[in-house]
Amino acid sequence: MKLPAVRYDSNISLEKTFLERRSVRDYADAPLALEELSQLLWACQGITDPNGFRTAPSAGALYPLEVYAVIGNVKDLAPGIYKYQPEGHQITRTTAGDKRSQLADAAFRQSCVEKGAVSFVITAVYVRTTGKYGERGIRYVHMEVGHAGQNLCLQAVALGLGAVTVGAFYGDEVAKVLRLPDNEEPLYIITVGRKKP
């Protein structure tokens, strides 16, 4: 499914997003727009250059990260798990149905994971980077997921949305929920939703 076109400007400065970025764990029961989902995915791993360079830096431009959206409440999009494909700026549904509760089970029953409109799970295929850089590549991948996560959080602020980063989860359980291949490891969950008034 092709995502709506992204925009490259907003009414909020980068400095203002720094000032306003906070962890938001309580969300209104209101859907995100498909355009907002599109913008968030692009901010995380979107392509910004004809050579394939992305919004977040990557050692050797090897791009070991994959991004999944566990959708529960996005207007005009059926609940399910969707994998982001930066090439073509599109998503593919990998699993049907609302899986937020199962993801929350894997994340120590944190309510934000179940109640957010969408949880983004960033995974890594380490061999893409370690194949070139050896064991040092693990460090590079961890640096990269931090860049991508911060991009997503700042984009949420710019859209007026709430977001929280989640590191407390059982990796093997998250992998089961997402049906990840053996060479892919979950590193980060970021939950996004509309802030309560």
Residue runs with pLDDT of under 50 for 5 or more positions? none
Categorize the overall geometry: globular
Largest sheet: 6 strands, antiparallel
Q: Cα distance, first to last residue?
A: 32 Å
Secondary-structure-based class equals: alpha+beta
Provide the CATH architecture: 3-Layer(aba) Sandwich
Strand order of the largest sheet: 3-2-1-4-6-5
What order do the helices and strands follow?
HHEEEHHEHHEHE
User: How much of the sequence is in beta strands?
Assistant: 15-25%
Please give the share of residues in helix: 25-40%
* CATH overall fold name: NADH Oxidase
Number of self-contained structural domains = 1
Strand elements, count: 6
CATH class: Alpha Beta
Structure description:
A hairpin with an 8-residue loop joins strand 1 and strand 2 (80-85). The protein is built from 7 helices and 6 strands. It has 197 residues and is an alpha+beta fold. 35% of the residues lie in helices and 21% in strands. The protein has a single domain (14-193), classed as NADH Oxidase. Helix 3 packs antiparallel against helix 7.
